[in-house]
């Protein structure tokens, strides 16, 4: 089957979903009010609560939720065949992710910009709030570890991407100053910044001394490096330290100084990157050489497909961004449809090209199975195959292979870095909330909470000696990241359903995807915790078993509590919306 036809079908479904389904949800279910005073205006402080143009906010929101997950998840899930991955990405985006991201944004806006964790108290009860906050805390901790691991390894594998990525930081700070202190427009400076990044990428791809390759500084693979570690391990350690210092600073700065302008640049990078890949697809017109379905997988697709694709279809982390940062920047309530639902559509478009890039990369099916011989092999190869496959699509517009590979790796790293520092910022919020809850004043201080977030994230990615050796803590957490992420999405949908029911509105559009997601995710997590991770013969399984068991018990507890609220006869009292 032609890759162009697959892309066309996906785009048509996304367009119909946004034009008609999101409009129905906005007008009939959420009932957006253009005159409603949003938290960005009501609590404007110039740091977290900042009224923001919807296009700029969409850029921040989308690049915060995109990361590497909507690329990596679908790239792995192609193991079961491209058709199952394709179907879940397009249907999950339209009927689950769009409603979830849109709904958590509206729910937070209507409740002082509070996070879904805090809102669990009001909607379900105090105990549910504490349990939910701990689930979120574990999830963002895993996000930090997973994405730090991804970025560090990409910097090692593609050293030409380092300089363009770091050049973006001072450019974004300059843009933030020009826009918010001198009232300049953001569009042209952002495009110029993106041009500077890609020009640097071209030069770095061609000129060796512009490639920041820490491995070579330790004498090559196997040499004794820092602290007696090998060259690659030493480079990995240094990159983790650099990233942790960066996210500490980035997550404590006011959002206008770095977060918003950098994310706006990355939103253009998304458009340019996706444009390159889809136009390249049009010119190359490759066939889907990966199998439609894998007839003999070593692991069943049910239920693992849904937690593997994760952010490519629906993600609980999106709800954290919607209610944690985006709701505090929403200028007008009707903007929530564009920011929330269309943000999910953007994620689906990215996941779609990930599937196509992987499924068209191989010469034939035999070559595909040589790389994707098992589900474990797929986990290890997915991201690398996407980068090579995407570079192959980019060659369709005449880009040389080395430049195309560098640009694709820059896109992946930029999105992952955006997610990383947003996640650390969210973790700081949660730690502060828990500090208030348990009366630990020190944890309510911004720098103390950020230090706890950064140090614990670094420890999680560095300390476990996983199957790939030193520093593979982030890699080994990926299976648990997927299940915890989907559980969080299911619980967030449940909170939206409770809120809609109390408002006397139809909540079926939320309830149906919630039930499906809860069933698949709890099934997968029970299967993994009981039958895979309970064999605590190594550090990796022990860590997964402990974290997985805690999340599973907390999730079941919250679900039972929320189910009791949903089935309780509705009172005549409707919550007062702020």
From TrEMBL:
Residues 3-361, 379-524 form the CstA N-terminal domain. The keyword Translocase does not apply. Coiled coil: none annotated. It is a multi-pass membrane protein. The keyword 4Fe-4S does not apply. Keywords: Cell membrane, Membrane, Transmembrane, Transmembrane helix. It is found in: Cell membrane. It comes from the Bacteria. The chain crosses the membrane at residues 6-21, 62-80, 86-109, 130-152, 158-179, 191-212, 224-249, 270-288, 300-321, 341-363, 403-426, 476-500, 507-531, 543-566. Belongs to the peptide transporter carbon starvation (CstA) (TC 2.A.114) family. This is Carbon starvation protein A. The lineage of its organism: Bacteria, Bacillati, Bacillota, Bacilli, Bacillales.
């Amino acid at each position: 089957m032609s890759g162009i036809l697959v892309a066309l079908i996906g785009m048509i479904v996304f367009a119909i979903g946004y034009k008609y389904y999101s409009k129905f949800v906005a007008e009939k279910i959420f009932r957006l009010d253009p005159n409603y005073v949003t938290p960005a205006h009501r609590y404007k402080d110039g740091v977290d609560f900042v009224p923001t143009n919807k296009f700029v906010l969409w850029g921040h929101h989308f690049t915060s939720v995109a990361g590497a997950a909507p690329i990596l998840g679908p790239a792995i899930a192609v193991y079961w065949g491209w058709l199952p991955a394709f179907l879940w990405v397009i249907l999950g985006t339209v009927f689950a992710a769009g409603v979830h991201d849109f709904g958590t944004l509206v729910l937070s806006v209507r409740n002082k910009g509070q996070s879904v964790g805090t809102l669990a108290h009001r909607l379900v009860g105090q105990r549910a709030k504490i349990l939910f906050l701990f689930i979120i805390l574990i999830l963002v901790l895993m996000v930090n570890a997973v994405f730090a691991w991804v970025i560090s390894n990409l910097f090692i594998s593609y050293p030409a991407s380092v300089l363009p990525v770091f050049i973006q930081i001072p450019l974004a700070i300059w843009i933030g100053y020009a826009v918010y202190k001198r009232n300049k427009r953001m569009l042209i400076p952002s495009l110029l910044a993106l041009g500077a990044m890609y020009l640097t990428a071209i030069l770095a791809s061609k000129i060796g001394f512009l490639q920041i390759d820490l491995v070579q500084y330790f004498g090559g693979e196997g040499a004794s490096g820092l602290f007696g570690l090998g060259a690659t391990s030493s480079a990995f350690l240094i990159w983790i330290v650099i990233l942790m210092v960066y996210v500490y600073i980035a997550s404590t700065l006011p959002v206008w100084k770095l977060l918003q302008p950098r994310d706006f640049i990355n939103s253009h990078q998304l458009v340019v990157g996706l444009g390159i890949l889809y136009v390249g697809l049009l010119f190359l017109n490759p066939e889907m050489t990966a199998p439609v379905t894998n007839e003999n997988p070593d692991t069943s697709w049910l239920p693992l497909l849904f937690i593997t694709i994760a952010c490519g279809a629906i993600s609980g982390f999106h709800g954290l961004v919607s209610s944690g940062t985006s709701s505090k920047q929403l200028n007008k309530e009707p903007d929530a449809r564009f920011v929330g639902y269309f943000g999910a559509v953007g994620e689906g478009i990215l996941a779609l090209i990930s599937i196509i890039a992987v499924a068209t990369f191989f010469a034939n099916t035999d070559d595909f199975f040589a790389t994707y011989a098992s589900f474990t092999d797929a986990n290890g190869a997915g991201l690398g195959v996407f980068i090579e496959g995407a570079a192959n699509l980019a060659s369709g517009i005449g880009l040389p292979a080395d430049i195309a590979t560098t640009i694709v790796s820059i896109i992946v790293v930029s999105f992952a870095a955006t997610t990383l520092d947003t996640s650390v910022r969210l973790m700081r919020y949660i730690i502060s909330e828990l500090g208030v809850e348990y009366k630990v004043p020190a944890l309510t201080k911004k720098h103390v909470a950020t230090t706890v977030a950064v140090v614990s994230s670094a420890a999680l990615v560095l300390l476990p000696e996983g199957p790939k050796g030193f520093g593979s803590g982030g890699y080994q957490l990926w299976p648990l990241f997927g299940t915890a992420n989907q559980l969080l999405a299911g619980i967030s949908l449940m909170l939206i359903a409770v809120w809609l029911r109390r408002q006397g509105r139809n909540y079926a559009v939320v309830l149906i995807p919630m039930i499906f997601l809860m069933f698949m995710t709890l099934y997968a997590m029970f299967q993994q915790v009981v039958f895979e991770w309970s064999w605590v013969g190594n550090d990796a399984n022990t860590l997964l078993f402990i974290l997985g068991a805690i999340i599973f018990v907390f999730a079941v507890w919250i679900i039972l509590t929320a189910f009791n609220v949903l089935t309780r006869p509705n009172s005549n009292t409707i919550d007062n919306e702020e």
